[in-house]
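Priority: medium. Attachment 1 of 2:
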């Protein structure tokens, strides 16, 4: 849970630390605004992905299900700067599917935390395996990191791509090939 008061205090200290006047008209309400924003963008810290993935529907098919181009925004835990992009999820049902919106909600649960992209990708795949118990899951995340764009190397437009394979996707390369074909790659 976000401690609104502590965040406000920290923002005031940060503003003072960079030489700003915390009583300047444009900054007076900034600590409160930042605290409210943090409650929203870090709301995934108190959420459980299982809430979204436990509601399943019985199916006879065991064909691959893909939800692609799920837009997400997250925050890098190293620099506290945003990274954003698209997540693509595939799974092979083992008698059960989940509503498609639940896959996007699962991405949101993990994206709305301080994160590493590699960790985010694995957490989504692990949650699918744990709560849906499919034959396999594959998650690919493509993102631009503002720590690469705004500072340091300053390379806007560069993309980081991460992949997490679980279950049959680890042992059957034809499934991964089909996934990439279905993504149009």
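Attachment 2 of 2:
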């Amino acid at each position: 849970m976000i401690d609104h008061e502590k965040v406000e205090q920290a923002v005031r200290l940060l503003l003072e630390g960079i030489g700003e006047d915390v009583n300047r008209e444009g900054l007076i309400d900034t600590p409160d605004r930042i605290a409210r924003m943090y409650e929203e963008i870090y709301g995934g810290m108190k959420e459980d992905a299982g809430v979204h993935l436990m509601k399943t529907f019985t199916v006879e098919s065991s064909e691959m299900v893909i939800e692609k181009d799920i837009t997400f925004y997250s925050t890098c835990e190293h620099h506290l700067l945003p990274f954003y992009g698209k997540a693509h999820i595939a799974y092979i049902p083992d008698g059960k599917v989940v509503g498609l919106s639940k896959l996007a909600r699962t991405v949101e649960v993990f994206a709305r935390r301080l994160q590493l992209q590699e960790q985010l990708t694995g957490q989504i795949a692990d949650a699918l395996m744990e709560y849906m118990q499919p034959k396999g899951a594959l998650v690919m995340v493509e993102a631009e990191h503002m720590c690469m764009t705004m500072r340091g190397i300053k390379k806007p437009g560069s993309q980081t791509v991460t992949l997490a394979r679980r279950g049959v996707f680890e042992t059957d390369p034809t499934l991964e090939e089909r996934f990439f074909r279905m993504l149009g790659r």
